[in-house]
Design a protein that fits this description.
This protein is an all-alpha fold and 194 residues long. The protein has one domain. Helix content is 56%, strand content 0%. The protein is built from eight helices and no strands.
């Protein structure tokens, strides 16, 4: 599924992957939270490139749980990055539905089938596989590839892995749609400058 587009940014962020030592997924999140258990809204804005008003709107709508003492944890950041990855190609209400499909109420951990940080890690590992040097997948379908990558997932509820895999497929398609849109926009912009 290589579209000939080099993905230089960490998914859901505006950060250059090379400047972060090639980190992505849980490795990236662990770097961010290495010294502290929480980060401030201003830091999230710098990481995700999302303005404060947008983030406050997501909080108000309940798509992201409110921070404790104005500090966001690893799973909250991962959720924000996942939303940010899809927001240019999916309606926010559909993104909210999809994340609820995976983890129920954002404010309740008992109905979660996977921590958002682990979900983000799966997304990033799959993005790497689909865009890396060996992105040649002639006999694998996206669903089969996802199934292979989530083989280590331990279900917390019956049917949880099926739900996870289905959501990952949608998230990845949305991510690639956004990547293609950005590339098309850049090409049109280049034509206008000629």
């Amino acid at each position: 599924m290589d579209f000939g587009i080099a993905l230089t940014r960490i998914p859901g962020t505006i950060l250059d992957r090379q400047k972060m030592g090639g980190a992505t997924g849980i490795e990236f999140l662990n770097k961010i939270f290495y010294i502290t258990d929480g980060i401030m809204l201003a830091q999230i804005r710098e990481i995700a490139g999302v303005d404060g008003t947008t983030l406050q709107n997501w909080l108000k709508r309940g798509w992201v749980i409110n921070p404790k003492n104005k500090m966001y944890n690893k799973d909250q950041l991962a959720r924000i990055l996942i939303i940010n990855m899809m927001r240019n190609t999916m309606q926010l209400s559909d993104i909210s539905f999809l994340l609820t499909y995976v983890n129920g109420d954002p404010g309740c951990r008992e109905d979660d089938i996977i921590p958002e940080s682990q979900l983000y890690d799966y997304i990033c590992r799959l993005v790497d596989k689909l865009t890396g040097e060996n992105a040649d997948l002639p006999q694998d379908s996206l669903a089969e590839l996802i199934d292979t990558y989530t083989a280590d997932y331990v279900e917390t509820l019956g049917g949880a892995r099926r739900r996870l895999n289905r959501a990952l497929e949608i998230i990845l398609m949305s991510y690639y749609a956004n990547t293609l849109k950005l590339r098309a926009d850049a090409l049109v912009h280049a034509l206008r400058e000629r």
